[in-house]
């Protein structure tokens, strides 16, 4: 469920529809599968009747398509619409990856709350409100858990449930103030990353040991990785996300840790850089790759001790003079 058809049918990228209104280069359609910028996810790109779509905004529940120029077609015309599949798929992968990251964070971080996501062309920023300090080791653990979830080919699904029920569930990430695009008529759209693929199961991926009423039916599933209220577009299986690399973390404000990750080519480029650095360390240290970290730690400790000794000798020489 979502006010945006793109969220419900993210793989739909070509469709024909009627133009209902035009205001300069802004166009309204009878129905649209373009995604309007919302909840940290950018607007789709594409064309309407061959004219480039440079922005899509959700205004009062209606999608406003901003074209590169004023169109020659008129209200009532039927137009062929095409969505840039490469960018749509990138956003689907990136948004799903942010959910996978949050599921990983729930396993590692204390007092965790979701602070939002910002999907950029180069990287994805996920804000986590937590009392845990995310150090280098935690960052590595997050990266490992995210990539294991991708490798395990976990099913991804979306459906709706009553808002009142979502509020009561501890396993659901639901910020009513931040997720207005996921709420409609007293129901909330839940995106679920389920357990590992189970061909014998129903594949809807809701949380283990919980029951959720969806359109009047009670469904039980097992071992959900993450269940989040969300109005964005997503892939149907974590394996479609592809390469993911957790890049870094920042602290934009007290109590908030911002995790930066990349999917696709940027993730591959970062992995390549890390691999080159690791191999260079191995060559310089003359140790196996798996022992390089320990050797660097030993050298760092020796350097620290040597610096302290130099400082002590300096003070003794000063006192003696």
From TrEMBL:
Highest taxon of source: Archaea
GO aspect biological process, one term? alanyl-tRNA aminoacylation
Keywords attached to this Swiss-Prot or TrEMBL record, sorted alphabetically, are: Aminoacyl-tRNA synthetase, ATP-binding, Hydrolase, Ligase, Nucleotide-binding, Protein biosynthesis, RNA-binding, tRNA-binding, Zinc
- For the keyword Protein biosynthesis, the answer is yes
Q: Which GO terms describe its molecular function?
A: alanine-tRNA ligase activity; aminoacyl-tRNA deacylase activity; ATP binding; tRNA binding
InterPro entries named among the record's database cross-references = Ala-tRNA-synth_IIc_core, Ala-tRNA-synth_IIc_N, Ala-tRNA_ligase, Thr/Ala-tRNA-synth_IIc_edit, Transl_B-barrel_sf, tRNA_SAD
SMART domains hit by this protein: tRNA_SAD
Tell me the ranges covered by the Alanyl-transfer RNA synthetases family profile domain, including all copies. 1-273
Family membership noted in the UniProt record:
Belongs to the class-II aminoacyl-tRNA synthetase family.
Stated name of the protein: Alanyl-tRNA editing protein
Organism of origin: Natronobacterium gregoryi (strain ATCC 43098 / DSM 3393 / CCM 3738 / CIP 104747 / IAM 13177 / JCM 8860 / NBRC 102187 / NCIMB 2189 / SP2)
């Amino acid at each position: 469920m979502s006010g945006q058809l793109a969220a419900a049918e993210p793989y739909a990228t070509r469709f024909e529809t009627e133009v209902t209104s035009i205001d300069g280069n802004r166009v309204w359609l009878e129905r649209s599968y373009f995604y309007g910028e919302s909840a940290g996810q950018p607007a789709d790109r594409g064309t309407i009747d061959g004219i480039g779509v440079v922005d899509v905004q959700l205004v009062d529940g209606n999608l406003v398509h901003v074209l590169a120029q004023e169109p020659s077609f008129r209200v009532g015309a039927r137009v062929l619409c095409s969505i840039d599949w490469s960018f749509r798929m990138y956003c689907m992968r990136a948004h799903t990856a942010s959910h996978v990251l949050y599921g990983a964070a729930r396993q590692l971080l204390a007092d965790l709350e979701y602070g939002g996501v910002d999907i950029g062309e180069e990287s994805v920023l996920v804000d986590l409100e937590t009392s845990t300090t995310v150090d280098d080791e935690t960052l590595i653990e997050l990266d490992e858990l995210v990539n294991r979830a991708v490798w395990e080919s976990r099913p991804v699904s979306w459906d709706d449930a009553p808002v009142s029920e979502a509020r009561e569930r501890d396993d659901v990430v639901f910020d009513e103030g931040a997720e207005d695009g996921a709420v409609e008529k007293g129901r909330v759209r839940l995106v679920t990353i389920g357990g590992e693929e189970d061909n014998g199961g129903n594949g809807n991926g809701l949380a283990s040991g919980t029951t959720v009423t969806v359109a009047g039916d009670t469904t039980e599933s097992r071992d959900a990785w993450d269940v989040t209220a969300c109005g964005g577009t997503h892939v149907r299986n974590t394996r479609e996300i592809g390469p993911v690399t957790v890049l870094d973390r920042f602290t934009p404000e007290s109590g908030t840790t911002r995790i930066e990750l990349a999917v696709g080519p940027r993730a591959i480029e970062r992995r390549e850089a890390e691999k080159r650095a690791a191999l260079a360390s191995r060559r310089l240290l003359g140790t196996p790759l798996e022992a390089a970290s320990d050797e660097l730690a030993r050298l760092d400790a020796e350097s620290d001790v040597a610096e302290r000794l130099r400082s002590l000798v300096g003070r003794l020489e000063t006192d003696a003079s």
